[in-house]
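Our consortium's second objective concerns turning raw sequence data into structural hypotheses that experimental partners can test. To show how far this objective has progressed, the report includes one record in full. It was chosen at random from the queue rather than selected for favorable results. The single chain below, 519 residues long, was entered without modification.
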Amino acid sequence: MLITEILARNARLYRDDAALVERDPTTASRREISWSEFDRAANRLANALIRVGVTKGDRVGHLMMNCLEWLPAYFGILRTGAWAVPINFRFEAEVIRACVLLAEVKVLLFGPEFIERIEAVKQDLDSVIVEYLFLGPREACPAFARFYTDFISTADETEPRVPLQICDDAALYFTSGTTGQPKAVRLTHRNLEHACYVENQHHHQTRDDIFLCIPPLYHTGAKMHWFGSFIVGGRAVILKGVKPEWILQAVSEEQATIVWLLVPWAHDILIAWENREIDLRNYCLAQWRLMHIGAQPVPPSLIHAWKRVFPKQAYDTNYGLTESTGPGCVHLGVDNTNKIGAIGIPGFDWECRIVDAEDRELAEGETGELLVKGPGVMTEYYRDPEATAATLVDGWLRTGDVARRDTDGFIWLVDRTKDLIISGGENVSPVEIENFYMNHPSVQDIAVIGTPDKRLGELITAIVQLKPGAQVSTAELLTYAEPLPRYKRPRLIHFDRVPRNATGKIEKPKLRKKYGRLE
């Protein structure tokens, strides 16, 4: 069933029940909409987009912070037959420009946080965009955009008659590769549908479950975890803020039963509890049945500590990629806490292989590349046939991760061949940072790696080889990175020789061994 049809069904069956709730602790505000309101809002946008010329196969960009309007807008785009193109809200102006031009976005929905970034590259964006739609305060709407509420106000509330098939293209999701340039992952309606079944099979959501959504919705992780509740008409609560007390208040007051956290947020909750900054007795948490984590390596020590504080909660971790339509191609399983540290077993309707460089199946305990196969595998990297051919082989998706399988069939990650750093749930390209620092007049060579951190998963760490006679302080090099987005700036600097092999490649395994590894 198309996810647009699931929404229509939920609106028929659960018409006046709350579907989405938005909580903003910074303003102490709360908003909610019912399933019927959700459905009608999606239809209004779809019909308004069709009215301005959006047709099946067009691309509609979606650049917004998490809010109550995010998901209705996403479903409205899908109902036109256009491809939804969610854009990472951390992307700087030039990356937004590259994404919009690659996708040839025809209409761009955006929030107030992105006005300056859009204005900085608007001259180029105008070559493809025919309509800018602004979702924010009316008084903040820039002159070049149409106010979203006005745009949809006179549109029909009935579902448009656009013929959609399960194998039709549905979305482009951007992910950064090792070069630092985002690749566009093309997903179909079948991919999205399968994500609903995978998540529900793994965590057994019912209509009575309430999912607390904290991570960004532009990412496949948060949305595809919500899909497990969506398919059965379960409510979602969108929380705008990640302080421990805000999370616990939301769980308590909204009676949330399922929460997907990133490692830093789980760590912050435990630290706040240990420091007596929060008192769990002040919250109603008995209904919270499942805490699960993904998007980055999960330190076993964190989960063991969590289980001591929340012994009655089930725990799960999920492994996935944007190219696999998000999490779930491998999952630990709530009954397998004896295997904490593993990413788990193949997910529902998924297959996994671990192979050597010649694609030969490896035996238990041997390390090789993890390949996955299932209905969630992407169609392609959009307009990048070379990268697609290197990643998709006979229906198998090369993850770029080195793994091993134990005697019980559980998969353990060993390393990431793609060399990305995952810090706070965000993928960071070392090459991008290395290229930036090579512009410094005193830097002769540099290698950027991730080093273990209990809160963020990994810290961005730079090993800097200075030019002979150069003298530069750590503080100066950290300050030099201020033009980079905050999440891409190094946290640690080490002055050392950068080892390279005979072909000129940096020998990062040596650096990881010297400067630390995940436990």
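The partners drew two points from this record. DSSP finds 15 helices and 27 strands in the chain. Residues 35-51 form the longest helix (17 residues). Both points have been shared with the crystallography group to help prioritize constructs.
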